[in-house]
GMP reductase (Variovorax ginsengisoli), 325 residues
Amino acid sequence: MQIFDYDNILLLPRKCRVESRSECDASVTLGDRSFRLPVVPANMKTVVDETISLWLAQNGYFYVMHRFDLDNVAFVRHMHAQGTFASISLGVKQADYDTVDQLVAAGLVPEYITIDIAHGHADTVKNMIGYLKDKLPKSFVIAGNVGTPEAIIDLENWGADATKVGIGPGKVCITKLKTGFGTGGWQLSALKWCARVATKPIIADGGIRDHGDIAKSIRFGASMVMIGSLFAGHEESPGKTVEVDGVLFKEYYGSASDFNKGEYKHVEGKRILEPIKGKLADTLIEMEQDVQSSISYAGGKALMDIRKVNYVTLGGANEGEHLLM
Ligand SMILES: NC(=O)C1=CN([C@@H]2O[C@H](COP(=O)(O)OP(=O)(O)OC[C@H]3O[C@@H](n4cnc5c(N)ncnc54)[C@H](OP(=O)(O)O)[C@@H]3O)[C@@H](O)[C@H]2O)C=CC1
Ligand SMILES: Nc1nc2c(ncn2[C@@H]2O[C@H](COP(=O)(O)O)[C@@H](O)[C@H]2O)c(=O)[nH]1
């Protein structure tokens, strides 16, 4: 198996089929909804909050609300009252089963539910998927995180409608250092490996550092990418604003960091500062334009045309050209 990451790959252009990049459609379908971009901000406390979730939903973007110190029932009710879809996260503990029961009792059906735990290839996830499919059969269930084809096959067989791939590639992840496991450093080829067996959408989660990495993820089998660090440093970002030598930053911490957990136990995340770079809406527009450019370089008009391109690997033993035959 070839091992590579975002920095070791470049996609190869095909003859252009548009006169303007505005003809290229960056939208993607997940479940029975279509979204402007194949990008979702990470379901982390320093990346999304209720206000950002509502704004994203109302402006044609997918979102996944985080699950920490949150009343999921009130959140779903609020989103539905605003006329938008509800997309929540759950864990696998008794409190999460209680949340499902409360949603059912209140007659609330979230359109999207993401089961979000560190080691998603687990019977606890199997049981939660089964519970959701029984109690909330109309909800679209995303399950993760995983990093192997075996896990993709199991999660799909257990009933997940989409899977999330990425164990430790994130900017505030320390899973690799603390446990010796994960896809950190080879996330893109792990995605390729997983995509070979997937029959349902994959969300590639973590490790995106540049907008071009979105197209690379699509090329290697993702339907969507989840991004934390590139979204954490905006004026509206929920993290605390910190001033260092006259420069403004936003704090960005891992969901498995002591900052999120409130205790130092099974810590697999850290806290960093991201420079503030303006408004979230502007970054999303720039991302859309960059994905449109990617589609045009792919010689296409639609997002999935990116899947048709060849690529080269740069540096290392795998260096060379890779042609689609
Ligand atoms: N994508 C990634 O690489 C990672 C992401 N995270 C994020 O951090 C947050 C917290 O995750 P998590 O700690 O799973 O959530 P929770 O604290 O809600 O734990 C979920 C359940 O899984 C158990 N659990 C957690 N890790 C493992 C493991 N390695 N093996 C067996 N059981 C495990 C926990 O029990 P117990 O704690 O008693 O073991 C608990 O019962 C999530 O948002 C997650 O996505 C965390 C680490 C890696
Ligand atoms: N190993 C850990 N992974 C974490 C933690 N908190 C979040 N995450 C994952 O990172 C991505 C975001 O990655 P980025 O490279 O875009 O910043 C996020 O979606 C989670 O999957 C953590 O504490 N430890």
User: Anything to note?
Assistant: The pocket of NDP (ligand 1) is lined by residues 91-93, 116-119, 124, 145, 166-168, 173, 175, 206, 255-256, 266, 268 (CB under 6 Å).
